[in-house]
């Protein structure tokens, strides 16, 4: 997989996600719509946390986010169980904006290198496959966020 293609897809997905979030009123960011376990605030933190967890973690590099992010946003977590204050909406939006560039700076030119953790979530074998795996995960959450926004806008 070429760097240009992999990072272009990542950028496109992230830009679509950010565009979805631009107009979401502050009052709806932490609402958990009926039928869901999490808020859109949680979704943002989850996307950021899992992107770094998947790509850096499985590649065998130190994860740049504070470990506390996993307490709030790892799979299986939900706002109803939060103890303490999660990272703010503004902090998460900034990370969403900056993360693709940071990932590109770290991994450009080495997408064909093998991953450090061979037994991983998607059985990815190369760093490029991790980029793809993370992008696929983000696309699924983009769809969830889209559905949540539609429900929240009806309330």
UniProtKB/TrEMBL annotation:
Superkingdom of the organism of origin: Bacteria
InterPro entries in the record: DinB-like, DinB/YfiT-like
Gene3D superfamilies recorded: dinb family like domain
Ranges for domain DinB-like: 10-145
UniProt protein name: DinB family protein
């Amino acid at each position: 997989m070429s760097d240009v293609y992999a990072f272009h897809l990542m950028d496109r997905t992230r830009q679509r996600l950010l565009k979805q979030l631009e107009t979401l009123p502050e009052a709806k960011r932490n609402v958990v719509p009926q039928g869901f376990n999490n808020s859109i605030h949680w979704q943002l933190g989850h996307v950021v946390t899992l992107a770094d967890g998947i790509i850096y973690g499985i590649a065998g590099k130190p994860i740049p986010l504070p470990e506390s992010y996993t307490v709030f946003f790892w799979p299986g977590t939900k706002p109803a169980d939060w103890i303490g204050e999660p990272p703010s909406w503004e902090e998460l939006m900034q990370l969403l904006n900056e993360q693709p560039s940071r990932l590109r700076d770290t991994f450009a030119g080495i997408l064909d290198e093998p991953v450090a953790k061979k037994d991983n979530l998607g059985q990815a074998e190369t760093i490029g496959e991790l980029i793809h795996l993370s992008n696929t995960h983000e696309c699924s959450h983009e769809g969830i966020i889209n559905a949540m926004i539609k429900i929240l806008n009806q309330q």
